[in-house]
Amino acid sequence: MDGVDAAAVIIADRQAVTRIGLVALMEGRNVDMVCVDSKAELVDALMLRRNVVVWLDYAIFDIGSVDSLLIMISRFSMARWVMWSSEFNPGFVRRLSDCDRVSFVEKTADIDELNHAVESTLAGKNVRSHVADIIARHGNKEDASPLTNTEIEILKALARGLTAKEIAEARCSSVHTIVTHKKNIFRKLEISTVHEATQYALRAGIVNLIEYYI
Description:
single chain; alpha/beta; Rossmann fold; Arc Repressor Mutant, subunit A; 2 domains; 5-stranded parallel β-sheet; 11 helices; 50% helix
């Protein structure tokens, strides 16, 4: 519309299919849109825009840690954030749910839900329809795992001594996907070796000693 500034949207999603789909959802709307592929590009885009909605797939983006993400959210106080992912874990949701500028949208949502999410966030509203369910299922346990269900399954396999190739074959997935999950597990747990991952899995009860020694 003439005389009306376009809303700004930054899409930070390295998954090509969902990025293309999100771009398509923005078409026909009065939106100044940019796609970024790295944390540096995201910061640059945020520096140039004030009232902006950031659609971020944190799980596959190089933010670094939840603490780093919270610092970025605090730094760019005019931006609204949509955590956009295939799955969320309760610990991650709890860390961000106190921020009134953060929404949560699942990539598995249907087209009506996605259109509603786009329209709502562009209007400055939060979308958290599934967050209450996540928190209700897991309560307020402070020791809840920061990992997603998929990452927990891969951690179990790593703790049992399987290689990335063996895990990929068992899950009918690619080695690249498993390696990406492994990197995310290490980042979230702030560890750097499979041995440390195994120790975490044992302490957290993700695997037991019998499974470990089989």
